Structures are given as C-alpha cells and as structure tokens.
Amino acid sequence: MLQNWAFLTSTTDWIIIAVIVIILFGGKKIPELLRGVGRGVGELQKGLQEGKETLQKSMVEEPEPTAQPVAPAAPAKKSAKPAKRSKSADA
C-alpha cells in the first residue's frame, strides 16, 4: 500500500492532497507552513554548498602523494663458497 503512494504523478492525486491539507491546516496556516519549508530547503542548500566548498578546499590543500619511482634493488652478491650446513640442521 505504501508503494502506491510513493509516486503521485497524476494531477488528481495532487488536487486531493491539496484539499486534505487545506482541511487539516486551514487557509491561514498554509503560508506559514510553506514559508517554513522554504527556509528548510534554503538551509539545506546552504549546508550542501558549504560542504562542497570544504571538500574542494581539503582536496586543494592536501594533494595526494605521487608514487615515486623506486630504484631496482642491487642484485645479491654470490659467494664463491657454498654455505656451511650446521650439525643441528642435519639432525
């Protein structure tokens, strides 16, 4: 039932809702309600803009470290003698 109310697209639906709102709140209260909604939307947009600016500033101030090319490690020196095996390893 709730999903049926999720997308009110017809004009008739909106007219019915408007009539119900007028009956519930009265004609004098509606401008106050809409004014409050307008202020809320304005505050939301202001907050989103401030968040966007903060994010952009943080991206400019803290550039990502670039990967520096690493020099290849020197090859290990090969010894002329084979490594000695300890007696404890044989046991």
From TrEMBL:
Entry keyword Transport: yes
UniProt KW Transport keyword: yes
One annotated Gene Ontology cellular component of this protein: TAT protein transport complex
GO terms, biological process: protein transport by the Tat complex
Biased composition (Basic residues): 78-91
GO molecular function: protein transmembrane transporter activity
Principal cellular location given in the protein's record: membrane
Compartment(s) of residence: Cell membrane
Entry membrane topology: Single-pass membrane protein
Domain of life: Bacteria
Spans through the membrane: 6-25
Keywords: Cell membrane, Membrane, Protein transport, Translocation, Transmembrane, Transmembrane helix, Transport
Record's compositionally biased regions (Low complexity): 65-77
Region (Disordered): 52-91
InterPro entries per record: TatA/B/E (IPR003369), TatA/E (IPR006312)
Stored NCBIfam families: tatAE
Physiological role: Part of the twin-arginine translocation (Tat) system that transports large folded proteins containing a characteristic twin-arginine motif in their signal peptide across membranes. TatA could form the protein-conducting channel of the Tat system.
PANTHER family in alphabetical order: SEC-INDEPENDENT PROTEIN TRANSLOCASE PROTEIN TATA
Subunit organization: Forms a complex with TatC.
Family to which this protein belongs: Belongs to the TatA/E family.
Protein name: Sec-independent protein translocase protein TatA
Originating species: Fimbriimonas ginsengisoli
